[in-house]
Amino acid sequence: RLSAILFIFITFCMAGNTWAQNPLIMDQFTADPSARVFGDRVYVYPSHDIYCSENNGRKNWFCMPDYHVFSSEDLQEWTDHGVILSQEDVPWGDPGANSMWAPDAIERNGKYYFYFPTRTKGASSGESGFSIGVAIADNPEGPFEPEEEPIKGVQGIDPNVFIDKDGQAYIYWSRDKIFGAKLKDNMLELASEPEIFELPKKGHIEGPWVFERNGTYYLTYPHVANNIERLEYATGDNPLGPFEHQGVVMDESPNNTWTNHHSITKFRDQWILFYHDSELSPNFDKNRSIRADSLFFTEDGLIEKVIPTHR
Ligand code: FUB
């Protein structure tokens, strides 16, 4: 009888998302997880939060010096492959800015392209002072070599890259609103004029993540609706829209974390939402920790709201 109860309990926990052990990384602060499946492992490219004093950036603000990449075959045990890119390595970046914000990575023709925003040397403050660079590697864990110049025609943060079934690549980014454009085959230059997606009508939106499922394109994003971010989504028939706002993927953080930043990917036949929260740093919400929970769709292709699991 006890083993039957235990079995039911474990099955309930699995169905309720405890596939992953949250937070995923316990020995450092991590945020903005972009997750990709390469081979039989899931790789997460997060940003890396530290705490700034007056001397190394803006005190009490985001302080992000470099990127590590982590991988796992079961979402339980994670390998830290170490630093793949630091602020000082970026030829066009402001070396003292500690501004290595939310990145993304994607594979094309056996090369791995790592997209990262950082403040440009001598740029004004604010998101328009950020450009988006690309670093290239032969393996998902690097070493990554940054390009000499950022992508022309892109000012902003939170890059996300999507490659459609026909091979056309797209890049999305944010600067209060979400922008998107086609990428050339070299993955380094825009192939179309940027388009602006104004969804929803009011409030700050950032952190785009696009994926396709059964012919529907999902544009998912954090939206500041009530002071802090909640994850929302829109759908369309085309990677560049138009997109129709659909609803909420995840409510605002129970820990009052101002940001949430996410990715959605399918790993071992299960859709998974990667996101962050500041559960490990209750008094400072710019020191965040990445997390993962299963994500499900209704029969109509709508996203069921994800409820975060805790340890
Ligand atoms: O991590 C720095 C910024 O906070 C990201 O670029 C935003 O998406 C938000 O998570």
Automatic annotation (TrEMBL):
Record keyword Hydrolase present: yes
Domain of life: Bacteria
Coiled-coil stretches noted in the UniProt entry, renumbered to this chain: none
Keyword NADP (UniProt): no
Residues passing through the membrane, by range: none
Keywords: Carbohydrate metabolism, Glycosidase, Hydrolase, Polysaccharide degradation, Xylan degradation
Record family assignment: Belongs to the glycosyl hydrolase 43 family.
Annotated protein name in UniProt: Family 43 glycosylhydrolase
Range within the parent protein: 14 to 324 of 457
